[in-house]
From TrEMBL:
Compositionally biased residues, Polar residues: 1-16
Family, as annotated: Belongs to the Glu/Leu/Phe/Val dehydrogenases family.
Catalytic site: 125
Residue ranges of domain Glutamate/phenylalanine/leucine/valine/L-tryptophan dehydrogenase C-terminal in the record: 202-431
Keyword Oxidoreductase attributed: yes
Protein name: Glutamate dehydrogenase
Region (Disordered): 1-21
Organism this protein belongs to: Natrinema hispanicum
Keywords: Oxidoreductase
Record site feature (Important for catalysis), residues: 165
Pfam families per UniProt: ELFV_dehydrog, ELFV_dehydrog_N
Amino acid sequence: MSSNTPPTTVESTVSQPGDEEEVTSAVATARRQLEHAAAHLDIDSNIIERLKYPAAVHEVTVPVERDDGTVDVFTGYRAHHDSVRGPYKGGLRYHPGVTREECIGLSMWMTWKCAVMDLPFGGAKGGIVVDPKELSTSEKERLTRRFTDEIRDTIGPNKDIPAPDMGTDSQTMSWIMDAYSMQEAETLPGVVTGKPPVIGGSYGREEAPGRSVALIAREACNYYDYSPTETTVAVQGFGSVGANAARLLDEWGAIVVAVSNVNGAAYDPAGLDPHKIPSHDEEPEAVTDYADEIIGNDELLTLDVDLLIPAAIGDVITEANADSIQAHLIVEGANGPTTFAADEILAERDIPVVPDILANAGGVTVSYFEWLQDINRRSWSLEEVQDELDQEMMSAWNDVRAEVEKRDVTWRDAAYIVALSRLVDAHANRGLWP
Ligand code: NAD
């Protein structure tokens, strides 16, 4: 196993590529995408082999006293993929479908995402197998504090910095920061990002992934010569990512014809006003209450629009519907919305797919700004955050676009090539430990 950091404990068996019954689609897709992109580069295959595996997967059990006095035990994971360029970074998910293999796959995507943005972080992801809707606030707090204690040795401002993800939010991050700081006997806001600004969070963090999706979508539309004021857009998922992206694109003149939540989509071929439809956060699952015409999510994905933004969940564009996609351009807001097989079909059909690891990377980029603010004990204004984010996104877009033009590859391969080149260079320079 090649690594230039001292070996960490792999606390449960790491399945091998090829154990198909063991791997979920997230890790299978992440590995196939890695191999696909690596084939375009003349790089050390030993480093690619190393990147197929996580450095460590920490699995813990978390006993929690319920409000009625009984004790339930939950399973939690924290997957560390690669830290050659800096501390591990990635979200923490509370969801009944969390698995260790999913955490590994998502941690790999975080490694590529940080590298494509040229951030000094590696990739991590974690989660607890729990339905947070079934917990009271105080049960969630006890779960979070105990989980923090169980993984305390593996996180820290210079080791691994969790952030919110599905089922977790700024309150969860506040509890983690407090639990960690109390045990370390000093206030360490840099242990997590996505906190409220009053305890070291960054302005603009919540809107950042949607903002970056909109920025990248705008650049992609310009690249393919779609007029900003005539571009039609369909957005699946009207949460933090989808609603912020839809509203910005609308402000920039695009015609947002459909937005959806888990119950269905609001549709108006003449254009909706996404500011008048409440996001998931503002009024959960209310999109269809504000619609004159409702269509299904499957129909939204196959609408005849210029731009499709899947911004809800993974694996929604698959072998089964890739042939029916009519959009001229796809910009991924969610993590992993397009399966490997669908990607190949869309490439054959000349439908460009601008990948998640570039498009929604505004979230981790502003997390990096938050971490810098915490370490320097100096907060930035919203304007500073947005200016810096816009610059970082444009720089990453230009790096990826240059590879598309130089090598005539897909946007996904180009983004991987940018990320892999940086990672392989870093591994080659640091060498193999011991
Ligand atoms: P969210 O919880 O704020 O909103 C999710 C939205 O998707 C809701 O409107 C929900 O109703 C809808 N949805 C859920 N299941 C659906 C389904 N089967 N069909 C259609 N719609 C469905 O979530 P979010 O933070 O906006 O995250 C969305 C995606 O973006 C996820 O894949 C997440 O991993 C990814 N992402 C989030 C961030 C972030 O910081 N929020 C950053 C990068 C990537």
